[in-house]
Give the backbone structure.
Amino acid sequence: MATTPAPPRLLPSGDSAITVEFSRDIDDDANQRVLALDRAIASAPIAGVSETVPTYRSLLVHYDPVRVGYEALGARLLELAEQPVPEQAKTRRWRIPVTYGGEHGIDLEDVAGALNTSADDIVARHAAGDYRVAMIGFTPGWSYLSGLDPSLQMPRRQDPRLMTPAGTISIGGVQTGVQCLAGPSGWHLLGRTPVRTYQLHRDPIFLLEPGDHVVFCPVDAKIFAEQDRAAEAGEIVAELLPS
Amino acid sequence: MSKLVIAAIGPVSSVQDGGRRGSQRYGLTSGGAMDRFALAAANTLVGNEALSAAIEIGPFDAAFSARGGAVRVALAGAARNAGIAGRGVAFDTSMTLADGETLTLGFARAGSFSYLAIEGGISGEPMFGSLAVNDRAGLGSPYPRPLQAGDELQVAIASGASECRIELPATGEAPVRVVMGPQDDEFTDDAKALFLDSEWKISATSDRMGYRLEGPRIKHLHGHNIVSDGTVNGSVQIPGNGQPIVLMPDRGTTGGYPKIATVVTADFGRFAQISAGRALRFKAVSMAEAQAAAKEFAELLHTLPDRLRGIDDFDLNIEALRDANVAGSAVSAVDAGTWQNFST
């Protein structure tokens, strides 16, 4: 028998947004509830709600206070959050090619050293994972994945890098992620994917949705180079697997 | 069609509108004008929808020329010396540039951002319903970057509508109102009191992502890391050094520092106009008061057309004369170097 989970906390984020907080920590159950509430709002829109932003532990609900007040919206969100988490009707599952190590994953050897194993073993464990997009944030298309093998958990770098390449696949703490744009990162860089999770002038502009499932498929540098050119031209080089 | 040619422009000047909607769940921020009220006033003057795309002009000099036909425009926001062909023109009025004429703008005298709205708006390709430029993400339209001298905007030929001015309520220097939270419980009562009772100075390293504030150090109760959650315009983050960062329209959509408070919607544009080096104070208000203010603000934007007035030469000359006089002794707390990092 499932126990009734504790209701989330409602936190005001100014006069036009409410943070519905399910946990203070990175917590898979909390993330499931966040995504369930997000789906519930998407399937039965609430007047005045303009957009929602799921994160690991909370759902930020943007709204227009002219159309709905804090109290009324908060009560409605608590009501929706109390409903049991439904099975996600249709889970999309993506296979994303990754070139591990070498110039594409400059921290792979260090990670293997720190975890007292071989680079091949790190790749095997990382590529064996069945991940879920817990949230997308920070910069466009940066997809944070839950489901990392606990044996791959490592503290973030002491000294974050100011610039890491577009398409970086990295690990940090209990998380792994697909970074779309080049930018700063304090995570450990294992590889790169040619997949653009965000690409202007492509339909869709954003490939992954919060809640999608992701598996990684190791490819060599030659295939990376080919797929990178195809992706640059607008081709979606991630594969949508039959569910 | 006419063209509006950017003859000269400084950093942090770009096409902005009411911002995009629905993209934050993918990590793309809403963007949009720093001061929506000034944007709306400028647009209203030329008959556009309040939050249509216009040119957001940073504090430096700028010049715009009509080419291929007359172009009707309006100026609002941060006041500055402005002229067409040697005659002074006033803010909060519409004006028409004849083909070949140039509107020149001086350095902002008070505030940071002026808005130049163009009758008929700006042609471009919207993304998530917006043309707003986001320099870091490399998007926006018609140019996916801040404007540069030589850029050309496709605009409508001036309709010939009679010029008008708009009567706007005075914006005071009252404390900037905030609603406490979402993570005010990460701070002691003393730290919250220090935040609310202190004077804060806008740092020179501020930009469209965030305004950094300088003042006393706000200490955290449990450390400065939280698991990232969503941000809004006006989120007041407290990073490890205890110096607040107020998140602006080009913010990251999620952030991992505790947010002690959030600037209310009605005061956000006024806050955004406070230039580097200037001081401000915050005042906590209840959710009820913040939402009442937000409704009043929405009503004010909605009823801006009711504030339009006809204009005659007498009014225009008085306004222009007054502007010219003030400009004669123009000083600004901001120097050129202050804004350099806005351009990167």
Q: What stands out?
A: Helices of chain B lie at 36-45, 189-197, 265-272, 287-302, 313-328. The domain at 176-298 of chain B is CATH 2.40.100.10 (Cyclophilin). The first strand of chain B starts at residue 2 and ends at 8.
